[in-house]
Design brief:
The protein has 187 residues and is mostly helical. The chain contains seven helices and two strands; from the N terminus they run H-H-H-H-H-H-H-E-E. Strands 1-2 form a two-stranded antiparallel sheet. Helix 2 crosses helix 3 and helix 2 crosses helix 4. The chain is elongated and about 65 Å long. About 3% of the residues have low confidence.
Length: 187
């Protein structure tokens, strides 16, 4: 038998609440081991254990696999996960002392401009590139900050300045298979 899970307070927030509900589902299924669940879920025992740890929100795919491994209906749990995800995304901190500028893997948005600092040179280079050429693309490794640079770095920066010669450019963010959104950056 594995080591016992640490206690969770389901009132501590959406992540803890969802983890608590996953634990309750597992208990109702006869408390199968995470190894046994991993065989049915298609995820590792560690991933399933972390989904019920309450430290961070698991992906929807992991929740669906967890629920399926416990004999539950994954489709019925999707709204629960979506509610928790929306709550996490919309959580507002009460005091500014708790605001941490590092957002993990979540991208910075234009509203996060105040937290997007230390990249002035990169932002200026991007604006010069966008404003000086008909087409510019930003590419790099996954998680390197491309989306944050385009949204929180260049969007606010381009609104503050216009290029030499007065030529206006627009910049949009798009990803493969989603198509281009409306222009978001005007130089």
């Amino acid at each position: 038998m594995g080591r016992p899970e640490r206690p969770l307070d389901p009132t501590a927030g959406p992540v803890a609440r969802l983890a608590h509900e996953l634990r309750e589902l597992r208990k109702a299924a006869g408390s199968p081991s995470y190894r046994r669940m991993a065989e049915a879920a298609g995820f590792s025992a560690t991933t399933l254990s972390q989904a019920a740890a309450g430290e961070r929100l698991p992906s929807l795919a992991v929740v669906r696999g967890y629920v399926q491994a416990c004999g539950g209906d994954p489709d019925a749990w999707e709204p629960r996960w979506k509610d928790a995800d929306a709550e996490v995304a919309g959580e507002v901190r009460d005091d500014d002392e708790d605001v941490v500028p590092y957002r993990g893997l979540a991208r910075f948005e234009p509203a996060d401009q105040g937290l997007f600092f230390g990249r002035a040179r990169l932002t200026e280079d991007l604006l010069r590139l966008v404003c000086g050429h008909r087409f510019a693309a930003v590419f790099g490794a996954s998680g390197s900050g491309k989306s944050s640079l385009l949204r929180a770095g260049s969007s606010p920066g381009s609104r503050r300045r216009s290029p030499a010669g007065g030529v206006r450019r627009c910049c949009g963010c798009s990803r493969p298979a989603t198509g281009p959104p409306p222009p978001t950056v005007i130089c």
